[in-house]
Amino acid sequence: MAxxxxxxxxLMTQRDADSSDEIAQFANNAQHDLTFPKxxxxxxxxSDYLELNASYLPxxxxxxxxxxxxxxxxxx
Length: 76
Known about the structure:
Layout: H1 7-12, H2 22-31, H3 43-53, H4 60-74
């Protein structure tokens, strides 16, 4: 089975403190979330966590977009 990095690790590649992009802002904020499930890959588990704990995420649509990008990258 091929190695698949965690969503958090992928998300950290999207950080950009100077960007106004929503995914970059999500990544910037997630970096400071000490309880973010850093080893998780599962969409449902991540979604549940974010819905309950991520007040810094203005819309779950941003997570959905970021997760689709993550899935696309993991296919290669």
